[in-house]
Write a structure and sequence with these properties.
This protein is α/β, with parallel strands linked by helices. It has helices at 18-31, 39-43, 46-58, 70-81, 96-105, 117-128, 151-160, 183-187, and strands spanning 63-67, 87-91, 108-112, 134-139, 164-168, 195-199, 209-213.
């Protein structure tokens, strides 16, 4: 019998769209089932670079890098950028993959109250005295309750206290914004976020993750 799947993140139904399915079949016929190597050696194909360039344009950034999963993009990006003498400032309801990346980096991990800008400013004031490298990390759309991060105010406070901003667009890409480009487009501030991470497995109907920046 026909049923409605309420547990899926396939927001736009693209995983079964005929054009998406056919593109996948065509790619397998041309390139095979896998790259056969890691990206650093022989595993980066032209279709990977095409995807990265299109994702960067989609997110109003200069370039992007793809990962095998959204989890991998968050953990890989954060652990590569932060060091033990830096601080990662997280919304209290951030996704676990963001917190895992912070822990792996060895940086100081602190949290502010969910979508509370007074709490964020208090944390930034405190951290400004002790840490040179500061990264404010938020979900664009929070997966459990659908709240949208107040991104313009977050960016304003981050600039005021010399911090960078990273946003996880896993549940925002393809969902909010006039053209489905996510939280920055929703607020009309495209290109103003330092790091834009996301996944291809939800609104975009595929598999993998990415980080875009300029």
């Amino acid at each position: 019998r026909n049923m409605i799947m309420m547990a899926s993140n396939n927001y736009l139904g693209l995983t079964t769209h005929p054009k998406v399915v056919q593109a996948g079949l065509d790619a397998v016929k041309e390139y095979g089932a896998g790259a056969g190597s890691v990206p650093l050696l022989g595993g980066t194909l032209e279709i990977h670079r095409q995807l990265e360039r299109r994702l960067a344009k989609f997110k109003s950034c200069e370039d992007a890098v793809v990962f095998t999963s959204g989890y991998g993009s968050n953990v890989g990006c954060i652990s590569a950028l932060l060091r033990p003498k830096d601080v990662a400032i997280n919304d209290r309801l951030n996704h676990a993959s963001l917190l895992d990346g912070c822990r792996l980096s060895g940086s100081k991990l602190v949290a502010f109250k969910h979508n509370d800008m007074e709490s964020l400013e208090h944390v930034l004031q405190r951290c400004a005295r002790y840490y040179r490298g500061k990264l404010v990390i938020v979900d664009g759309v929070f997966s459990m309750d659908g709240d949208i991060a107040p991104l313009p105010e977050i960016i304003r406070l981050a600039k005021q206290y010399g911090a960078r901003v990273m946003i996880d667009e896993a549940h925002a890409s393809g969902v909010i914004g006039a053209n489905g480009r996510g939280t920055p487009e929703h607020y009309g501030i495209e290109g103003q976020v330092d790091l834009v991470a996301g996944t291809l497995s939800k609104g975009l109907g595929g598999v993998g993750g990415f980080v875009a920046t300029s």
